[in-house]
Amino acid sequence: MQLVRGIHNIELKTQFSRQGCVLTIGNFDGVHLGHGRVINALVAKAKARGVPSAVMVFEPQPQELFSPNTAPARLTRLRDKYVLLKRLGVDYLICVNFNRKFSNLSATEFVEHLLVNKLNIKHLIIGDDFHFGKNRKGDFSMLLAAGKRFNFTVSDTASFKLENCRISSTEIRKALVEGNLADAEKMLGRPYAIIGRVFHGDKRGRELGFPTANILLKRRVSPVSGVYVVKVHTQYGAFDGVANIGQRPTILGVRQQLEVHIFDFEQIIYGQIIEVELLYKLREEIRFASLTELTAQIAIDCNNARKVISDINLKN
């Protein structure tokens, strides 16, 4: 899958202008089972027409621009979406920089300049409640009319939704906040995971006898926090571990990050991409009076995590 960052990188000489594409637009936060149905329909429609499939997302998400203080926590960052959409067979992920200038684009300009001239869309899959353009004046009926004018078809995402199943990013976020990982997994179709690049931290875990791989959760507040039993996927294979997600209050941390102690693992993975699946929540993140108390609790967490993993393996 090819990532296209910015409208300016959609060149007229590319595959879009030659063939066109089948497109869908949305946040796709979490890329859950409901999203999966839409993406499967997108890919099938593109293959039937012999053109690329494309997903358009916005960074930041519109609510994060207009209401940054009340915007919900992200389930997935752009990197996560890229990995998940690639697995579903999407050809292009188009990431549009959603800023004040773009938000002031008229609905007509959005359709004619971006969808028609730039992307040469042949079919658009979109929710019937989708609004676009300055003051959100563009809507589903406008897209239907534009399709007749510019020779593209439009279908509603509702026709691909799972029947008798309430799945939404909001419900998944709620389940994660409440520690209901099993419910979140059912809606996602997979364990909730965080994907990111391992960066050099302050090596505090190593000093305490529990070295960690760290992922910085920048540009969002994670919907989860606390200490979790995890499965870590690396280029060396999958390993069990225990992770802390939060701000490390005992050492006065201020950045939101994920720290994972991987069991029986000695490889150096700085700079590498890992995927951390959350399997079970052990406890909330708390502040300890001293590093000695923190170290003792980490040892307890590791023992408890191994017991949980043993129970999981027995059930499987």
Automatic annotation (TrEMBL):
Keywords: ATP-binding, FAD, Flavoprotein, FMN, Kinase, Multifunctional enzyme, Nucleotide-binding, Nucleotidyltransferase, Transferase
Protein name according to UniProt: Riboflavin biosynthesis protein
Function noted in UniProt: Catalyzes the phosphorylation of riboflavin to FMN followed by the adenylation of FMN to FAD.
Entries under Gene3D superfamilies matching the protein: HUPs, Riboflavin kinase-like
Source organism of the structure: Thalassotalea piscium
Keyword Transferase: yes
InterPro entries, sorted: FAD_synthase, Riboflavin_kinase, Riboflavin_kinase_bac, Riboflavin_kinase_bac/euk, Riboflavin_kinase_dom_sf, Rossmann-like_a/b/a_fold
CDD domains with a match to the protein in the record: FAD_synthetase_N (cd02064)
Annotated EC: 2.7.1.26, 2.7.7.2
Domain Riboflavin kinase positions: 187-310
Family in the record: Belongs to the ribF family.
Pathway assignment: Cofactor biosynthesis; FAD biosynthesis; FAD from FMN: step 1/1; Cofactor biosynthesis; FMN biosynthesis; FMN from riboflavin (ATP route): step 1/1
GO molecular function: ATP binding; FMN adenylyltransferase activity; riboflavin kinase activity
